[in-house]
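Task: encode each sequence below as structure tokens.

Item 1
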Amino acid sequence: MSMVSIAPSQQRDEACQAIRHLGTNALPLIFHWFRAKHSPIDKLLNLGRVRWPSGLKQLSSGERRMAAITAFGQLGATAKPLLPEMIPLLNDPSYAAFAVPAVQGIGLQGGEQILALTNAFKLRYFVTDMHVLAALGSHGAKAAGAIPLIIEKLDAPSYAVRASAAVAAARVGAPAEKVVPLIERNLSGTNRLREGVLAQGQADEMNLWSLGEYGPRAKTALMIISNFVSDPDPGVSQTAQSALIKIAPTNHKTPNPLP
């Protein structure tokens, strides 16, 4: 199970698939790792890794717990009884990044559990912010209580987080009068900080898609969206055209398919 924590992505994916296959048979080991306590050996391991970076394969207690958190997420609803223990980890800087996808994989129930995802915003780490925003958006209107925090993320330093917030805002039903002007500003090219997680075209597509989801309520954005119709990136161009049709269907006809 150590592969869940430290292996390269392909091996990690294979390990996760094996855990899903084992199902409840994997629970005793996962429980044991999940409840791993910090020990003096952890400090020795850290010191040893500084001296022998590739020579020590034993996992620290924290790494075992991270692997267990990920494994519970792979088990899905089977691990639902663990949710009361998992949700507080969204508040823990050491484990929140692992807990967000894990609790999503297990399955959150009710507004209170869904809103608990926002505790991970305290990490102030852009990748975790993106995961939280994607998770909130997946719950649609059930995550409406998080709208103020989602709108705040439209002002985040990272353009990738701002684009993720735009999608989440559209999916949970955040008010157009507050969201649309912020997305317009973000599309205008100001305050862009490249993080290396999303290509700029991907972020533009996300922002344009979000404006399209608001339909006629985003009519103030028609001019800026039009600027992207001739974008050299086909995905951006097509998303811009689709957004225009959704916002002003009488002014923009669906393009004819190519022969």
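Item 2
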Amino acid sequence: MTTSLSTRRRTPRATLPDPAALEIAARKAEGGEHYHLIARGRAFRLGVVAYVSAAGDACFRIELLLRIYRAEGQARSLALRKAARLITAVERMCYLTRHQDGGWISCEKRVTGARLAGECRSLLRAIGGLARE
């Protein structure tokens, strides 16, 4: 049995981060912080912030931005339901969620370098359905 392209759930294209390379970039960056974009679409953006703590340790924070509505136009109830399911899922994964201007929700979580790629893969699978919005 084949699945049509219109109904198949796809994982967005992504460039998974290398913790060692991110750490080097953060240490070289002015202010000790470096942002790496992993994937984006019209309704989301996923990235990693690598930064150097006051103690000199490399730290990583995953940032997922979700657009739950546009500033103008007709409300899209299906998109809102999908976004609500995704927000619930990331909250279960211990992400801190906050409302932002322009209909965006930010989801953030600190992770270790060892867990960075796996956490990003989990998020990419979760946002696969939203990526086509």
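Check on item 2: The two ends are 26 Å apart (CA to CA). Confidence is low (pLDDT under 50) at residues 1-9.
End of task.
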